Amino acid sequence: MSPTTHLVLRRQSLLLGGLTGSIALLVGGMIALVYFILPALHAGRPGYPPVSDLLPGSMIALTFWSPVLFYLAALLAMARMFAQVAAARPVWRATARGLGLTGWALMLGSVMTVLVQPRLMQLDWVREVMVQQGRHAAVGGIAHFDVPAIVIGVVGLAMLLLGGLLRRAEAVEAELEDFV
Amino acid sequence: MGLSRAFDSKLASQARTFEVIAWVATVVLAVQLLVLLRLLTLIGPAADALSHGDWMGLRLAAEPVLRRLVEFLPLLIYLGGVVAAARIFHRVAEGELFSKANSNGLAEVGSSLLWGAAASAVIVPWILSWIDGEYGFSGIHLETETWVIAVIGGAILVLGRMMAQAGRLQSELDQII
């Protein structure tokens, strides 16, 4: 890899790594704040649900947001990958491994959104707690054909494949260096 | 060369599986688009318009369809990205690893993800608020998935460049051999 391209690549990776990491922190932090921390702080006060609702409520929030955990893992894996590229580690290997992790996380998150989470939200205990808390329990449906989730799944596959391709690129570069 | 050949066949079979999944996803998205647009509601009014010259009815029926078309603009853009990904999978399955077409394809996937995310977060809400006669900017609509898609889009654009780099390496190697 020529020094200039490498430098440009490192600068871009630094930018993207920072961006990815901060977005992961922002999204994760907001969800944690609104659905877990604030309810825990307010529980038991007048006008808010009692303390006994706290645990079932958090369990339901966790079930509801379970796909997002995978997306956050993917974002963190990507941030780490960019950080490694920016730190001038062997570019191909760091990217190949990071892409593999990201691809799996995205794909699992997509499967969670489309197939698993709708089923989990229909479990008996989830419905019971939601009815008790006066919220609408989820109804019917085999799968949730969420457009962004399906797109994320396909892109996850593309990233897995790219990881394989880059591992191949590493082999090519090694062979090339043997000749030189 | 033995190592890279073994890699090739594994990659090719993986790519073949992924291609099938990507086309299934394309069909699911396309069917969903057609169902949500409710294009079929145009058939009756269109027939009336052609047989009785009742164009007003068609206009009334077309308006909600056009509005829904704007609403599902992000879906259309994403659909283009998914098709581009499926075509990359196809080329890799055929043994075309680091070609120019593949790195262009990656750029296509990346930019359609970015544009799709921009459309669902900003462009569509604004157009809809204009159509509804509010003539305002109805803020930014951000969902977790939109964030994820935007970031991945940017990452894939950079990866496309790495892929082009890998292509140059491969052709250098081919020249030596």
Q: Which chains make the largest contact?
A: A-B, 52 and 57 residues
Q: What pattern of helices and strands is seen along the backbone of chain A?
A: HHHHHH
Number of helices of chain A: 6
Largest sheet of chain A: none
| pLDDT averaged over residues of chain A | 84
Which range does the strand content of chain A fall in?
under 5%
Number of domains of chain A: 1
**Uncertain runs of chain B with pLDDT below 50, 5 residues or more?**
none
Give me the Rg of chain B, rounded. 22 Å
Globally, the shape of chain B reads elongated
Please state the oligomeric state of the protein chains shown: heterodimer
Name the overall outline of chain A: elongated
Could you say how many structural domains of chain B there are in total? 1
Backbone CA Rg of chain A = 21 Å
What is the succession of H and E elements of chain B?
HHHHHH
The strand count of chain B comes to 0
Helix residue percentage of chain B = over 70%
Regions with little confidence, pLDDT below 50 for 5+ residues of chain A: none
Number of helices of chain B: 6
Report the structural category of chain A. mainly alpha
